[in-house]
Amino acid sequence: MKVAILVKEFPPNVIGGTETQTKRMARELARADHNVTVYTKAYPDTPDDSTLPYDVVRVPNWRISPFISTLTFVFAATLLLIRDADDYALLQCMMIYPNGFVGQVVNRVRGLPYFAWIRGGDYYFMKDTPGKRWSIDRVLRDTLVLVQTERIARDVRTEFSETTLEVLGNGVDIPEGTADGDKLVFVGRLKEQKGVHVLLHALEGHDEELLVVGDGPERERLEALANRLNVNAEFVGEVDPDDVADYLREGKAFVLPSIRGEGLPNAVLEAMAIGLPVVVTDTGGVADAVIDSETGFVVDPDDVDALEQSISRLTNYPKMRIRMGDAAREWVIKNHSWQNIVGNLETVYRCVAE
């Protein structure tokens, strides 16, 4: 099937969960003999995309400010997809805002079937802004919308009753072998809602080594906090998504202490796929990926004591930790292998295209 995928940002210029998932999804769809074209922002320093197994259309935008860049991207992407609509069977919009709005306009003008995929922050951080809420509501009323977990589906239905939702999670590469390290690992963007400051407070007074993989606006403040609390934390900065597994192999457990706004983070699934038990917070769709006390522990957001206790249980009881890690890997293989995800996505394609 000839599929267009619209995503605002794309590697290597922006490396986030949605961007990395879209890149790997396009790769897997191409392997399954789909003809895929990704529409995404143009950057002046973007490497050549011609070696990829799918096409990439770099959409022009004015990089005067983030707002102007997004506004001009939306306008230009809409025009390009209106022009190219006859080339595709459907349009897949990664993030309901703003890409779902583009899909709706293109559908109205050219009749190209489309669906949107809520990723997490595009819903939780946007739904309370009047203009963005209006756009989200229009898309939810208009077409099929995918969400990553049942928890996110319930959250959406609580606020928007007229919706057609289906649950389809992220795919993950299953590495050979499992982790055998002795560190706690966090992977993610260093911003306030990821809750790394909560994790640092939970580790105060402990000898555990923490590996922090990722970069962001909070890095300097978090490094200072780690020093002040005397936490043994190594901040390695941003790494290529394909290299994340190398850092996960150094771990004995994975921690994601997010405060709010998560969808289904790639990092959690990647950690579980490599055999790490996980400690996560009950926010967004994260808890749906963890069977509490079987593949890891789920604690309330911003609860330092609960986070500390769960981490201590994993570090103090190695047999339990190994058992949970093995169970986590088995669960991911069963539920989030690319073979399963692509097969389910192909079912969505057939329904939308008809």
UniProtKB/TrEMBL annotation:
EC number of the protein: 2.4.-.-
Gene3D superfamilies, alphabetized: Glycogen Phosphorylase B
Domain Glycosyltransferase subfamily 4-like N-terminal: start-end pairs: 15-174
An annotated Gene Ontology molecular function: glycosyltransferase activity
Enzyme class: transferase
Domain Glycosyl transferase family: 182-331
Keywords, sorted A to Z: Glycosyltransferase, Transferase
Keyword Glycosyltransferase recorded: yes
The protein, known as: Glycosyltransferase family 4 protein
Organism of origin: Halobellus rubicundus
